[in-house]
Write a structure and sequence with these properties.
CATH architecture of the largest domain: 4-Layer Sandwich
Structural class: alpha/beta
Shape: globular
Strand content: 15-25%
Number of helices: 11
Number of domains: 2
CATH topology of the largest domain: Purple Acid Phosphatase, chain A, domain 2
Helix content: 25-40%
Radius of gyration: 21 Å
Strand order of the largest sheet: 5-4-3-2-10-11-13-12
Order of helices and strands: HHEEHEHHEHEEEHHEHHEEEEEH
CATH superfamily of the largest domain: Metallo-dependent phosphatases
């Protein structure tokens, strides 16, 4: 029986998810989910500026020609810092690209805590595609796409106060917008609550908000550790040739893990969002952010599989990527690259929910 205190604490999320806009799942459909663009006024205070050109190219030359459905999962506009008029006039080209998806009926736009006033003020250019939660139905268990701030009482009660403080006090003084994306403890706590709720309700949550990519509820460090454990279990019964390959792969994984830990010094960034004594359930995925320092990440769903994808350009340093990696695909022009970080069949995700919850 569910803990009544837990149910009460998560009632806020239940209310939002019960009003989800339902879209039937079709294995022939292609979805791409981006979140946290934080589009501003085009100035140096606009976080979207750095990766805007890359996003334009990726949407125009890759996802639109391949008939992907584009989901912009919240915090698309940075209305805490800038006005709607400033954003619309500064990023006309971006909205033209969104229009191209919308004209084909392939755009869905949800709202986050930084652009929630679009619903209240009815200013959005896409009133018929702007929602709070998207539900993909027709699978064994539903996939729900939402920004992720809904789990927090703070954003429900004090979001407007926060917006006023940032726009009229912090921004003019050059003070950083200190959100959950910059507070590792807050984002870990938020992800943990969404994980517990998704596991209890047997749903798959695809979120943004924290700017931290997650795949199957696991961080990169978790993924590396589980792969090492899997190879260690295979090693004893493997042939001599296979043992050589296993040792080589383990050495590479250990180097990746050491490097990751060196960059993420705080323990809460190195761990997943499940209890230590629990079997991890692949019920939370996070698309990350478009405004990453080393590129942008997204979630793709196509051909019955879900993928975490990293897009980057030639500005990224060689210390972060092996340029000889055969999994890196380069767009025409040679400057923008796609790397599939993780992939899993949706059937595996559904079976995990069925057997492990």
């Amino acid at each position: 029986m569910a803990n009544p205190d837990f149910q009460k604490k998560e009632h806020r999320l239940s209310t939002h998810l019960s009003n989800a806009r339902e879209i039937p799942f079709d294995r022939n459909d292609r979805w791409v989910i981006f979140s946290d663009l934080h589009m501003g006024n085009g100035s140096r205070r606009d976080d979207f500026v750095e990766n805007s050109g890359m996003l334009h190219t990726v949407l125009s030359e890759y996802y639109h020609p391949k008939d992907f459905r584009l989901v912009l999962n919240g915090d698309v506009e940075e209305l805490h810092k800038f006005t709607w008029r400033q954003i619309r006039s500064s990023w006309a080209e971006t909205y033209e690209i969104f229009d191209a998806f919308s004209d084909k009926g392939r755009l869905i736009k949800t709202v986050g805590n930084h652009d929630s006033r679009l619903i209240m003020d009815l200013k959005d250019h896409y009133p018929y595609t702007m929602d709070t939660v998207i539900g993909i139905t027709g699978l064994d268990f539903p996939i729900l796409i939402y920004h992720g701030h809904q789990v927090s009482a703070f954003y429900e009660k004090f979001n407007d106060i926060s917006r006023i403080g940032i726009r009229y006090f912090a921004t003019p003084l050059g003070i950083m917008n200190f959100s959950v994306a910059h507070d590792s403890r807050k984002r870990h706590h938020l992800e943990h609550r969404i994980y517990n709720y998704s596991r209890q309700e047997r749903i798959v949550s695809i979120i943004g908000h924290t700017h931290r990519p997650l795949f199957e509820s696991l961080t990169k460090a978790d993924t590396l550790r589980f792969r090492i454990e899997y190879l260690l279990n295979r090693y004893r019964n493997a042939s001599e040739n296979d043992r050589v390959e296993i040792r080589t792969e383990i050495d590479g994984l250990r180097e990746d893990l050491i490097s990751w830990r060196a960059r993420k010094r705080r323990p809460d960034l190195q761990s997943g969002i499940y209890a230590e004594d629990d079997v991890p359930i692949p019920c939370v995925f996070n698309s990350g952010t478009v405004i990453g320092k080393r590129g942008m990440t997204c979630i793709e769903i196509k051909r019955g599989k879900i993928r975490l994808v990293h897009w980057f350009d030639d500005r990224i340093g060689d210390e972060y990527f092996d340029r000889e990696n055969k999994d890196i695909k380069t767009l025409r022009g040679g400057h923008i690259h796609r790397l599939e970080l993780r992939r899993a069949p949706l059937d595996y995700v559904m079976d995990s929910l069925r057997l492990l919850t």
